[in-house]
Amino acid sequence: MMRRSTRLAAAALALALTAPPARAVPAVPLSPDNPEVADQWVNEAVRPGEGELASIELVDAPTSASAHDPFHVKLRITNHTDETLNTLKVVPRRAAPVASVVEQRVAAVAGVGEYEPMGDEGVVDKQIAPGDSVETEMTLRAPGGIGTYPMLLELVDATGTTLDTDRFHLGVRGSEDDVEPGEITALYPVSAPVDIVPGETGEAPENPPLVLESENLADQLAAGGRLDALVEQYLDAVQTPEVGYATCMALDPALVDTVDRMAGGYTVSDTRNAVVEEPKRLRDSWGSGEDTDAAPGRGADDAKAWLDKVRQVSEQGCTVALPWANADLNAVARTGDEWLMREAVERGPFALQRVLGNAGTINTVVTGPGYVEPEAAPALGWADHTRSSVPDGGMQAAWEEAHTGGDPRPQQPVRVLAAQNPSAERFSWIAPGVMQVGYQDSLAAVLASTGTHPDTPGYTNPSLRFDATIDSKKARDISAAAAMRQAARDKVLINPPATWDADTATVLLGTVASIIADGTSRPVSFGDYLAAPPDVAPAEHTGTNFPDPAAYTDAEILQVTQQNGFINDITALMVPDPAIALTRYGFTLPLRRDMLTALTTNGRRALSLYDDTTRATGERLAASRTTLNELRDSVTLIPPGNVYTRASSSSPLLIVAQNGMPLPVRTEIRYFGPDDARLNVPGALKIPARGSVTVQMTADLPESNRGTELQLYLAGASGQPISTPVDIAVRTAGVELRGWAVAAALVAAALALALLTRFKRSKAPPDRRATSRPAQRTTRERRQP
Known about the structure:
Blueprint: H1 2-17, H2 38-41, E1 54-60, E2 64-66, E3 70-79, E4 88-94, H3 101-109, E5 116-117, E6 122-124, E7 133-141, E8 147-156, E9 162-173, E10 182-190, E11 211-212, H4 216-221, H5 226-237, H6 241-246, E12 247-251, H7 253-262, E13 267-268, H8 282-285, E14 295-296, H9 300-316, E15 318-321, H10 329-334, H11 338-345, H12 348-356, E16 364-366, H13 390-401, E17 414-420, E18 427-431, E19 434-440, H14 441-448, H15 473-487, E20 491-494, H16 502-517, E21 521-523, H17 526-530, H18 554-573, H19 584-598, H20 610-634, E22 635-638, E23 643-646, E24 653-659, E25 665-672, E26 678-680, E27 685-687, E28 691-700, E29 708-715, E30 726-732, H21 733-762
Parallel strand pairs: 2-9, 10-12, 10-20, 10-21, 11-13, 12-15, 16-17, 17-19, 23-30
Antiparallel strand pairs: 1-3, 3-7, 4-5, 4-6, 4-8, 8-9, 13-14, 18-19, 22-24, 24-28, 25-27, 25-29, 26-28, 29-30
């Protein structure tokens, strides 16, 4: 047994040394089964063929056991073939205790031969028809030594061939003398996808009506739903003071904000009304009406009840804000947009303050990907909440002060949580004023493998990546509990995935309580875990050494960058009006939040959900782009016609500038035309909110009977086009009259010549004939019948 433990340790070292280099992110999203990226998701050499013919799943088992004690397991066996299966056996196996969580991960991918049989085989005495399942039970005995043991349940057929395995790690408890307890802190994330229909714009003084695409959130908020269960069981767990002291609820501010709006009522629809209302003629409105597919939401009462419970958590214990919509901050940083990053990391605590009455832990960033790219680190300085203007004047105050070029360097240090090797220094500077606080990467990877849709973190070694669902959900939850117990012998932060389910959360909360109760660890507050020593060195490395298959692609980042740039242009185009409560930044704020929702990490790192989440990102960006186009088209020029005829060269040209937005806009008219054409346009033009102005311009144009072709458009302060260009042809009446006079003279001369010729013919002798035959008429000259 000890020999096999040594093999696992050697395997762990070999995998670390032979890690494949990180590869560039694909230009566009590629499905996990695409050969170009498939090996970044799953190492095909890991446990090949398991579960194809039949599968074995752990239905019930304890999360830990006392040394030498028997424990009971329940199993489910399923036939995936087209034939009836019989004479199957279950062979229980185990390996020697692992010395670290890294070895635990290696054991999950090791060959069956690395495990030795333990106890009696279980005989499945039932025939299993194709597609059917049967359940069976076994009693096993815990090993005698304290530690974490790799366990394997092997399903074999009558020939002894392995059909499938289900693997878990069992923590064996017991009293240990003269062992210094570790220190444990745990985050308890609460997040969910927020499916606000894209294209929302701000209103004032109240929020715009909330329109959700589905009742997904309502189902999760209802009694027994995922979000309700997460909060309920947390409130129960923190009744034990030590558990409450050691844990901190990490809340998604986008979720809290949306649930707060749900409590005031909402609508469910897959579309929303146009952001710009076009004037309609009466006959155009006949038969039209509101969206008939829209329905009142049913989750308002559950939303109120859930918020009351979260307020109780906030009043009694620790909370911290996740990035808005749990956005991928590396992706946000790649857009290069200051305001998008500020919305991602700066606003969150103040949203919690407004809704819950408590901002929670500030100047702290919990990264969704689990690592920080070097280029992203400086921008995280915007999470210095001590200097933020949001509590006093909202983000619009910062916008009005300086649209661009803000300095992200914090005045007070910003702490950024990131996964790292346990041997690395826990605290390190990754940018001026931005400090990385590490947590154990191998433990975080085991936690990420829990749930119905396990994640594939980008900081893990691809050699150890496999489809975690080949082990049962119960087995993976038990393994996570064992990994926590193994890691808790040192100072450890438990950081589960934000999309975990309530069942897994129950297991982990129970494990925290058990670890504290049996003296394995003592509780440490989240604030104490973040407390850095006086001297912190710069980081030797940040980011990840491995390919991240879930990283946002260049095509997605380009779309967000372009659309967010246009959001900035629209914001700058509008003019504040003290008579209107709505601010220009407030009007476009929901559009920025669409960008953050499009860049969420929720579901993005799950092998089983990647395709769905990339599709959702594309659909949200497309819908948001439609709204941006509507806003662009609402600020436009309306010429009097495609051809404009002026009385003289000094006559002014008239054109109407229209604004469909709820605030005035300041713009200017620009044009394209021939080099010798000059249009004397006015300077800055202010168009009233949802109104229009008529503009007069003079023009110095070349004299031409055909007129001068011009293309006019509205531009923003930096000269970028805002409106769609309009084409007009300008003609001058005087030039046209002179042209007609010349033409009339030529016609008169031709008539005079014709009359003179006819007069001469009438004087010729009567018998004079033409000496030549008249030319034959062509078809075109013949009169049509």
